[in-house]
Amino acid sequence: MIDVTFLHAILKRIALGFAAAWAVLTAVFAAFTLSQDWMEQTIEGTMRFGGAGEAEIEVAIDSYLQAHDLDRSLWAQYVDWMGNMLTLDWGESLFVESEMLTGETAPNLYESGEPVFPMVMEATARTAAYVLPAIALAVTAGLLVGLYVAINPGSRLGNASLGSAYLLFALPNFWVGGILVSLAAGGVIADSPLLFDHALPILLTATTLLGGYVSYARAHSLEYAAAEFVKLVEAKGASNVRVARHILRNSAIPFVSMLFTEALALLVLAVFVIETLFGIPGFGMLLFEAVHLRDLPVVLGCILVIIAVGIAGNVVQDLAYGSLDPRVDTGRR
């Protein structure tokens, strides 16, 4: 039987998510449409450099605005954009996709590109191909190291593992990746697609998250490692694995809270670095190029994906709370 209170909490999350989506999309739309269009400036500057007259420049700019449906009133544009975003009818990119992702040729300012929805979904799937394994790797390693250090304080292995996790977190992943890319370009190491398209993005993204997971797992595990119920379990001769399970069960809720909030915040930044460094045509690269070219349909679509991931993370978080501790009242959160 479905818990009505829990269902109400989930629906409340979704409603708040829609409100957040409207507010963020409105802010992005306003930022783009009310600011100076640098693509329009590019047309004017290029034509003036080539010796074009005022009439030719005006015709070119009018053609650009009409081709991209930017010559209507702001209100008409806003209503259409918001309706299309929320119904997943995101229209077409203002520029050709291949030009956005590779930068090999100058974008055609008068030609619409690919449909935005499949473009954004494809880029999101490419990013998820290395982000999800990285999160799984970071969570697993973080829990193991944090629990081991809490259960075995002062051990050499625990201290070495803790120090290694913090060192990997402190090392700038763009610097490590840049060195490896340079070595591959110089022929020092093999330029393997498996290494640079999959293995390294997973490892470097995991190290971005690992330090935080280790810290939280260790801190909350230490809180329960000295609890009376844990001492009772140890007194009964339970193995370290069984003791760790009891500690993890009780420290998991604050860890889950950090898992979604910190992961989303760090990954939004990490994907730009990783994908730019390794030339991965994923979500970060697509959003970066769309902002650069003022491709508003793609920018709004990418923003909507970020909001959707945030809403999904909150729902999964509530489900995890109920599973880990039925005493938690998600309806009041």
UniProtKB/TrEMBL annotation:
InterPro entries: MetI-like, MetI-like_sf
Gene3D superfamilies per record: MetI-like
Annotated GO biological process: transmembrane transport
Subcellular localization(s) per the UniProt record: Cell membrane
Positions of the ABC transmembrane type-1 domain: 124-317
Pfam families: BPD_transp_1
Transmembrane segments: 128-151, 163-189, 195-216, 252-278, 298-316
SUPFAM superfamilies xref list: MetI-like
Protein's UniProt name: ABC transporter permease
Species: Halobiforma nitratireducens JCM 10879
